[in-house]
């Protein structure tokens, strides 16, 4: 520790640097709390390295750093003679007062927040969201079942060949099976057809919902991957019949932003489950917030208070040392008064006392005692 003390300059223990460090710790704690609390109710926050880093590693590292810094500061003041018993008493009282006040305020705020969150997300909210998710799943499954019935009835070799021969309007028949039918497209693969190599066999329905011909090579059997802004649910199928390959695409209308709203329902449901699981620890949430995010600024305030207290009680230590020299009869030293407070008055009085000539001891004289 002595070697470490020689390497570290005394400037880092000065009041301006400690003020700068206090502001830095305050900003760091705020940023950690802002990024952590905002994702506290996320279902993946506790299972990701980022969540573990923000919620545990970073706050604990900051607390350990401040503990080490306080040890170095205390050691520095002790070995330089700036520490005094009177200053340590004031510091202990100040530290206890700051810690108890900060902890009480944090517990009150945490309790208020916990009650607000618990009242806003009671047990009925997850159940309602679960019911909404089940209704959404039921609706999508019914629509997909209707689309699969359309595919089974119309997307086969015999139906396509008959349609090429008879040229009937499929939309009326499609809407008997699926009332939300929007478009039906059937193409025959032919390398001689330009520009995309697909010959149109059937193109019926609303052209606004047609699948682009230049993207027909991406069609596979089954439903297309849904997008949040899709207005139709698409189903593709490759039909091979009589040495011919047909690419079929069927589009069925769905409510606007169905998939986006379904994703929102599922996200809110997962978050409500997390809040419901955290309901048991809500009474202790304020304590956890204090230790993780409020304790580092409090520790830094205590460190700064320690330096300020030792700086303020330094004149008292000098006055105590000077009074001891006067008692021993040494009057060659003087104190330099700083400020017009009580410490400055004591220094001036001791200087006047030192300037008086020593009185010869007389028998029967009473000794006067000066209590500081």
Return the string of H and E elements.
Answer: HHHHHHHEEEEEHHHH
- Which strand order does the major sheet show? 2-1-5-4-3
Strand content: 5-15%
Query: Could you say which overall geometry the principal axes of the C-alpha atoms support?
Result: rod-shaped
Average pLDDT reading? 78
Distance between the termini: 37 Å
Instruction: State the oligomer.
Output: single chain
Which class of secondary structure composition applies to the elements? alpha+beta
* Spans where pLDDT lies below 50 across 5 or more residues: 3-7, 360-372
Q: Could you estimate the helical fraction of the residues in percent?
A: 55-70%
Tally of alpha and pi helices: 11
The total domain count is 3
Strands, count = 5
- Rg (C-alpha, Å): 41 Å
Q: Report the major sheet.
A: 5 strands, antiparallel
Concise summary:
The chain is α+β, with helices and mostly antiparallel strands and 372 residues long. The chain folds into three domains: 2-120 and 280-312, no CATH class; 153-256, no CATH class; 316-355, no CATH class.
